[in-house]
Amino acid sequence: MNNPTLDEKLSIIGVQLATGLSLQTRKLWVDIEQTIYEASREIPNDSRLLSLLCSWVLVHGDRVIVEKLMRLQKKENSPWLVAIAIFAENKGFHKWRRLIKKQKQEMFLIDKSLALSSIRLKGEEPGMKKQNFLIPMGSIRSRDKDALSVQELARINTQYRNRLIYGAAIRSDVITAIEFGFKTPYAIAKAVGCSYEPAHRIFGEYQLVKSLRAS
Q: What is the mean pLDDT of residues 66-86?
């Protein structure tokens, strides 16, 4: 299977869903940032995704490469990715701040009249209204149990495990792509979501070290 569903992708990056995954599916290349971005775009169709993604961020928010998300946002804005970034900033993951941008239109997670009524009664989620997200307090149910732990995710996800080793940076993802079998810097850059230059440079450094080990 070469085209996992969104739920399968989310499970591969550690979101706790009821989706059963085969060993073959777990071994597919599924990029963390691309999956978060894709899922954020589906929030208008499935509001549960906001809480699930925020739960994931609560556990793993410091191991995201924000520059990759910024690159995706530049191509096409995902408003609800901004809401996730606001949540992340509130939880102390300050590098997510670079994604926060006030939306041109008011954004509602539920029906507008119901949202405004709930906000009058309960208040709003912190920091959201300033950026034009009108979300009643309590609408984002972030729970540790909705995401795999650091240890659990590192055990099953090579990309995440390499970020623990090398840091949340492009170098880590390029090395992961090489380990997944991508053969050229161009293919690596496309898979990782980076420019050609770092893919070419890191690929060359990796091959150099590999040749030294073999000698």
A: 96
Residue 91 — φ and ψ, nearest 5°? Answer: -90, 5
Dihedral angle over CA of 29, 48, 74, 6, nearest 10: 20
Question: Where are the domains positioned within the chain?
Answer: 6-146, 150-214
Mean pLDDT for the stretch of residues 107-134: 95
136 DSSP assignment:
B
**Model-level pTM greater than 0.90?**
yes
Q: From residue 137, give the alpha-carbon distance in Å to each of 71, 74, 128.
A: 30, 30, 10
Extract long-range pairs of 191-197: CB within 8 Å, 24+ residues apart.
191/29, 191/31, 192/31, 192/68, 193/31, 193/33, 193/34, 193/68, 193/71, 193/72, 194/68, 194/170
CA 64 – CA 152 distance, rounded (Å): 17
pLDDT digits (tens, 9 = 90+) for 7-41: 999 999 999 886 667 667 777 889 999 999 999 99
The CA-atom distances, in angstroms, between 83 and each of 7, 25, 67, 72, 192 are 20, 30, 17, 15, 24
* Nearest in space to 152 (alpha carbons), one of 39, 31, 35, 56: 56
Rounded to 10 deg, the angle between the 196-214 and 185-192 helix axes is 120
DSSP code string of 166-179: H-SSHHHHHHHHHH
Distance in angstroms (rounded) separating the CA atoms of residues 156 and 143: 21
